[in-house]
Design a protein that fits this description.
With 46 residues, the protein is of the alpha/beta class. It has 2 helices and 3 strands.
């Protein structure tokens, strides 16, 4: 599974990465860009 984390979930993103999950986290990303990336890369939004 691949994830993309919202700006409020930086700590969770860090833990998911430590556990080996493919997690993308950008703290200053706009929601529209977050949605586009999730759709293009088939990621689950957290």
């Amino acid at each position: 599974m691949k994830f993309i984390a919202d700006s409020m979930l930086g700590r969770l993103a860090k833990w998911l990465r430590l556990l080996g999950s493919d997690t993308l986290y950008e703290p200053h990303i706009e929601d529209s860009v977050l949605l586009r990336i999730a759709r293009e890369q088939d990621r689950i939004i957290l």
